[in-house]
Amino acid sequence: MFEEEITITLVKPVVLGKGDSAITYSELKLREPNAGEIEKATRADTSVGAAITLIGLIAGIPRGAAEKLCKRDLVTANNFLEGFTDSGLPAVEAGQS
Prior knowledge:
- The chain has 97 residues and is of the alpha+beta class.
- The chain has helices at 35-41, 47-59, 63-67, 71-82; strands at residues 5-16, 23-31.
- Strand 1 (5-16) and strand 2 form a beta hairpin.
């Protein structure tokens, strides 16, 4: 049995914007993806692109914020999301896309 939802505290918070309008993302709230979200993510050209898209959709954050995740946070989030599919989305690993 695995968790159906998880909140990941980011190793490196992501900041979008500057000054008073800046938004800081310090955690990701993830849940099981639905079919539409998986389909949108698989349209990406690379496995990393698919992971970024899926994380953004599930966590409800802008793609630009998901693109700024450090590798450790990206891998942690992707590993959780992979657990919901038999084969998982393509693995996000160093140097692979």
